[in-house]
Amino acid sequence: MLKFLLVAALVPAMAMAAVNFRACPNGAPTPTTLTVNACSGSECILVAGQPVNARASGIVSPVGSATATAHIVARVAGLDIGLELPAELENACVVGLVGGCPIVAGTAFDYVLFDDNLEVPARDIPVEIEVGLTGDGGAALACVLFDARIQ
After folding, report:
1. HSE of 28 in the Cβ direction (CA atoms, 13 Å)?
2. How far is CA 107 from the centre of its chain?
3. Residues 74, 120: contact at Cβ < 8 Å?
4. How many CB atoms lie within 10 A of CB 78?
5. Bridge partners of 149?
6. What is the pLDDT of residues 69-99, one digit of tens each?
7. What ranges make up the beta strands (E) of the chain?
8. Residue-level pLDDT at 17
9. Where are the alpha helices (DSSP H) in the chain?
10. CA–CA distance from 83 to each of 68, 98, 111, 130 (Å)?
11. pLDDT confidence band for 22 (50 / 70 / 90)
12. Contact status, residue 145 vs residue 28, Cβ threshold 8 Å
């Protein structure tokens, strides 16, 4: 009974931690939920020089892939401001995909992005952040857009 009460208490808190997101224009699959640090709602506040911990859960790709490359883009008024993913985080099969590769078509997977030091070229402006995964032959495996302010 105690376990049920603990789970029942945590479910609303976990739901509140979800970040509002949109699908990318490339039509890539989106997760069922996205959490980023302690953000919730429409705009996520990220702090330059601090860790970013994001989890996209329940992604279902219509195509399988033996590889997965992660990318991140931050835009202001549609212009890329030069936010780059550290090279060691690009190979999502090694770092990021829960369970690693291959990605199996039609099977849900989770992707975790942990960057211990957010390096950004611009601060204190609203940005649109895109995080995506690309697979074999350039296949779009997953992609999300969300709004943030980087301080």
Report:
1. 21
2. 18
3. yes
4. 6
5. 45, 126
6. 999 999 998 999 888 899 999 999 999 999 9
7. 33-36, 43-46, 52-60, 69-76, 79-80, 108-115, 125-134, 140-150
8. 64
9. 2-16
10. 20, 24, 19, 10
11. very high
12. no
Supply 95's token pair. 């770092």
Phi/psi at 26 (5° precision)? -75, 0
With CA atoms as reference, report the closest residue to 76 among 29, 120, 21, 24. Answer: 120
Report which residue type is found at 101. Answer: C
CB atoms within 10 A of CB 84: 14
Q: Render pLDDT for 114-146 as a digit per residue (tens, 0 to 9).
A: 999 888 776 788 999 999 999 999 999 999 999
| Tokens linked to 120 | 């950004």
**Separation of alpha carbons 141 and 26, rounded Å:** 10
The length of the chain is: 151
Residue 32 above 90 pLDDT?
yes
Rounded-to-integer distance, Cα 142 and Cα 14, Å: 22
Task: Determine the 3-state secondary structure of 123 from DSSP.
Answer: coil
The per-residue pLDDT of the chain, averaged, comes to 87
